[in-house]
Every structure is written in structure tokens, then in C-alpha cells.
Amino acid sequence: MIMGRYEVQVLDSYENTTYYDGQAGAIYKQHPPLVNVSRKPGEWQTYDIIWTAPKFEGDKLVEPAYVTVLHNGVLVQNHVKLEGDTPFNRPPKYEAHPDKLPLEPAVPRQQDAFPEHLGPRDPRDRGQARRGTEGGVGAGSSR
After folding, report:
1. Buried/exposed 48-80: b ≥16 CB within 10 Å, e otherwise
2. Residues near 125 by Cβ (< 8 Å), separated by ≥ 6?
3. How big, in percent rounded to 5, are the helix, strand and coil portions of the chain?
4. Contact 101, 138 (CB under 8 A)
5. How many domains is the chain partitioned into structurally?
6. What 3-state class would DSSP assign to 21?
7. pLDDT in the model for residue 98
8. pLDDT at 136
């Protein structure tokens, strides 16, 4: 879950015939992965997620969210536009929210999740990466 609203599927899709937009690497119920590159159960799976948060002015959506996903090093989502959040029980929609990522992984089994900020930085940061802080990118691995 990104920002508590947007879901990139992280599940076992190895030889799994689940619905196409519910496979590993899918944007839940919006965009299926370009290819299923899931490894066998028990093998390490990696996800690199490049996230552009939606922008709001007050309650009005100004710019939608975009995401690029590499699953096990293979491009499975290429800068796709999200139609809104990713609930299971209704169509997607946008609601204004803060543009910060949570610091904790949403999945307890998920390991090595390090959000990193790639956008404009505060000049006081002197261009240094801020691993483990709020930002616009999450990369993670799960088993």
C-alpha cells in the first residue's frame, strides 16, 4: 500500500491463474503487469517502485498519481496513470490527502523497504540521499 491508498500487488503469482489485474506487480484492479515474472515460492522476490504522488489544490485533483514498477528487475508497469485509489469494493476515486509516504511497510513480512525522496530537496540537505525518510519512492523486497 502506498500512502495508505494505492496498491501494487505483492503476492505469490508463480503459476497462479488469478485474475489479470490482481497478479503480482499489478496496480490493483486498474493495470495488470506487462508480464508475470514471479519466482517460485520460497525464492526472493524484489519490487522497485518509482512513485509520483497525486497533487491536490485543496480538495481538487491537479495531477494524478503515476507509478513505474520493476518486479525481479523486469519492467511490469511503465509510468502508468492511476485512476484513483485501489479499493476492492468500488471504482477508484481520488480524495485529497497529505503527500507523504508512511515510514513503515504495510506488509509485516515485507523487508528492506526504504522510501527515498527524488523530487526537489530542501537546500539544507546538500543533495544527500535520505534513506528511511519521507519521500516519493519506495523500494522493497519480500519473501
Report:
1. bbbbbbbebeeeeeeeebbbbbbbbeebbbeeb
2. none
3. 5, 30, 65
4. yes
5. 1
6. helix
7. 81
8. 40
The type of residue at 48 is: D
pTM greater than 0.85 (yes/no): no
Strands (E) located in the chain:
45-52, 55-57, 60-63, 66-71, 74-81, 137-142
Q: Are 47 and 139 in contact (CB under 8 A)?
A: yes
Cell, residue 2: 502506498
Instruction: Give the model's pLDDT for residue 115.
Output: 65
At 1 the pLDDT is 80
Strand, coil or helix: 129: coil
30: domain CATH number is 2.60.120.560
Q: Which residue has the cell 527515498?
A: 116
Range of the domain at 107: 1-143
**Parts of the chain with a pLDDT under 70:** 100-143
- Residue matched to cell numbers 528511511: 132
